[in-house]
Fold this sequence. Notes:
Structural class of chain C: mainly alpha
Radius of gyration of chain B: 20 Å
Mean pLDDT of chain B: 87
Largest interface: A-C, 74 and 77 residues
CATH architecture of the largest domain in chain B: 3-Layer(aba) Sandwich
Mean pLDDT of chain C: 79
CATH superfamily of the largest domain in chain B: Response regulator
Largest sheet of chain B: 7 strands, mixed
Order of helices and strands of chain C: HHHHHHHHHHHHHHH
Strand content of chain B: 5-15%
Number of strands of chain C: 0
Shape of chain B: globular
Low-confidence stretches of chain B: none
Largest sheet of chain C: none
Helix content of chain B: 40-55%
Number of strands of chain B: 12
Distance between the termini of chain C: 12 Å
Number of helices of chain C: 15
Shape of chain C: globular
Order of helices and strands of chain B: HHEHEEHEHEHEHEHHEHHHEEEE
Strand content of chain C: under 5%
Oligomer: heterotrimer
CATH topology of the largest domain in chain B: Rossmann fold
Amino acid sequence: xxxxxxxxxxxxxxxxxxxxxxxxxxxxxxxxxxxxxxxxxxxxxxxxxxxxxxxxxxxxxxxxxxxxxxxxxxxxxxxxxxxxxxxxxxxxxxxxxxxxxxxxxxxxxxxxxxxxxxxxxxxxxxxxxxxxxxxxxxxxxxxxxxxxxxxxxxxxxxxxxxxxxxxxxxxxxxxxxxxxxxxxxxxxxxxxxxxxxxxxxxxxxxxxxxxxxxxxxxxxxxxxxxxxxxxxxxxxxxxxxxxxxxxxxxxxxxxxxxxxxxxxxxxxxxxxxxxxxxxxxxxxxxxxxxxxxxxxxxxxxxxxxxxxxxxxxxxxxxxxxx
Amino acid sequence: xxxxxxxxxxxxxxxxxxxxxxxxxxxxxxxxxxxxxxxxxxxxxxxxxxxxxxxxxxxxxxxxxxxxxxxxxxxxxxxxxxxxxxxxxxxxxxxxxxxxxxxxxxxxxxxxxxxxxxxxxxxxxxxxxxxxxxxxxxxxxxxxxxxxxxxxxxxxxxxxxxxxxxxxxxxxxxxxxxxxxxxxxxxxxxxxxxxxxxxxxxxxxxxxxxxxxxxxxxxxxxxxxxxxxxxxxxxxxxxxxxxxxxxxxxxxxxxxxxxxxxxxxxxxxxxxxxxxxxxxxxxxxxxxxxxxxxxxxxxxxxxxxxxxxxxxxxxxxxxxxxxxxxxxxxxxxxxxxxxxxxxxxxx
Amino acid sequence: xxxxxxxxxxxxxxxxxxxxxxxxxxxxxxxxxxxxxxxxxxxxxxxxxxxxxxxxxxxxxxxxxxxxxxxxxxxxxxxxxxxxxxxxxxxxxxxxxxxxxxxxxxxxxxxxxxxxxxxxxxxxxxxxxxxxxxxxxxxxxxxxxxxxxxxxxxxxxxxxxxxxxxxxxxxxxxxxxxxxxxxxxxxxxxxxxxxxxxxxxxxxxxxxxxxxxxxxxxxxxxxxxxxxxxxxxxxxxxxxxxxxxxxxxxxxxxxxxxxxxxxxxxxxxxxxxxxxxxxxxxxxxxxxxxxxxxxxxxxxxxxxxxxxxxxxxxxxxxxxxxxxxxxxxxxxxxxxxxxxxxxxxxxxxxxxxxxxxxxxxxxxxxxxxxxxxxxxxxxxx
Lengths: 322, 347, 381
């Protein structure tokens, strides 16, 4: 057992950090929306899915069939990232307009908003399975099957320490995730709109009285959260090279877990929660087998919440409460 | 009956088309009896299959059923058909336990997983003489059952076995890849469907695992190559109780392929020959003047003819008498037939 | 940019919403004012309707494409009973539970294990199954019920997944293969329980009637009032001397019992159960049924469950599109009538954390800040 652990802990850590980085980027969307609206945006997993297919659409239309390298790779990734961010961000704003705003207008309960979110999530999945994938990707009657993504970069080992290989794709994922986190942190803490977001999440009524345009703030929150899911979507498409209409579901649950683990509403908590979750899963799998991954993840979540009811870093976007 | 539109419909459409072909040929020849094929789309889901079977038996008054396609739905539908005294022939449900229910109206034209698993393991032992095998499955009924049978046979042959499971809905199999790499096996077997095997293969090869990867009938699909990518899929070995006539020269197979392609515009794929044979068995019963469900069932007990896929003759429990497993390999990005598991050679 | 922040009054959407809403409200208000005997007649008629429901005459309209009595048992009957159970937790006590399917699974597995391994009789297992589910409700609840609303949601979701994955990976209870050949209940009043869905359906109807009576009595008792207080304002309830934790745990306990009961009855019919029978989406569907019907109002909840179970089967003709339409319909219904089709009468704001009233409204956004918009524009620039 211990021997197994020592043999596998290195590679597991690398794998865990890579998947954790993707969790973290998706978790940001949950955390930001929760911070501002106190709403579990259940359809966020579909925002991610839309971004991943947008990236694939762009890849196919740019005529990329084989692996790239050097500047071509960097440029392509940047373009694809912008496409995915635009698609996910746009879809998130649209989602807010259609599924949440009418409820907000009527002061509906949060439970109603949650059901609306579940409905939107089902709708978007089916919409892709029945219409978008068969039509746009020319796969008639195969909407529920996975769609392959052409390889963007050849996997290369950059560095080997003992039995741990550091691969270029893992480095790209981690570095991109950290850069996006820093940019987002600056945006929320240093800009005017960011201040509005923080004000709204602390006290929406006072923020309104102070002249903050709540609708605009909410729209921005969805846009930014969605865009982060778009980045995750591109990285996911690049790494796993297979997309499905329901690809977001499992990742969404994991990302939400990560958000709660780190402290929901807290941006840095999302990063920490995501990476921690990725590591916990992969380390746990060494001892118990990969089939227990999810059980381990949820058990750790319950344990953490028992001792720290607001997550590891607490809720900081908003005022910490009770 | 089977999953005609759902996630695994790629496995069910060829046998239903095979059956369609047999019935259309029959109707074109026959003047006094016409046979109608009614399709029931269960999406492979037992909860949907049971009410549909009940309707088929009581309201639509079918005389025989081809299907259900999967083992899970077969198990729940079986009792309904027994009670309705409707004979059924499945072309693709390979769970061994189905034959042990004492059902009198149930038949299957393919070998079951307790034959398939050991046959694949024996083949690998013979071809590669491995010391250590790594057996992975998708923690679902079919995949885990097949993987268990393979692992047992490996151990019986003195091959050490290590196991892991993957989440069929997940994408990140890095923890499994890490385990495989640490174990450094000679052969890898995966019990499950091609979609997951494709993702797993890709990650195994990217992770630097070079051992031969094998799987069972759930993975016999050209989409495996698409999902894994050509380089990663190359050399994968697949066992299947099905006979797929990939450009075969055998006269009967060639005629079947040509007719099939002329009708549906695609090559016959997995379980198409078996679907054809299942329908043919029922049609032979009808041809012999049996038009009620009971009589068809009686006739099936004695039937013995040379089908496209194999000799069709049922044992007393409804299982096929001829237990043949065929071996396929991915070569240059497409599946090729190597022969049956006792004779096939790895190149 | 601020154009769309105005309210959309006067458009056809709003008009339609008022019509639909008016109808639902009218029904509810009449109900509230109706004398006791009128209610009993309605109850009687409903039970009568449930008894004659499986007839071919009704079936030919209700489900032309699949076997109607089978549908009446599952999903319709099981969804209704599950929704009544979940309503105790979500509608009455205001606790957001996203893993209700776990209790259903525990009930079903109890039936399967005791039935196949120990040859127990259905009625014996029924008691054990309800007990097991209730105990697991307490096991889940006692550490987690101290958490605030949304944390509870993710933890319960996790619990549902843990139960399913554990079943999948535990060989003692069949692992991924599940359990086959689950015995049927013994004959009752000379009626054989075999493959015909009708006896099971009537068994389920009997269970629903009993559970509804039980739930109604609870609602009017001290317990029901305590739940209402917790749901509306947990802190205030605590201050007033209501032992909130104990009552929340009781809600979990009772909800789990009903979930377990449904599981036992369901498993006794289906012959075989497997872990994938208990996916997360089932929890979400039952929750949707509760909210769609009108969280907290029993007739509404049952009606919602009926609709959610029946509509996709009725419209099998649309094949795949039925699920797409189902999703869109949920969004539309919530926009039209966020309190559900037949909302509970006493309150408008629901669930979440009872702790802070301002939280009950998403974002606390008051209907449009039209005057403030100009200012906000400046600030935002």
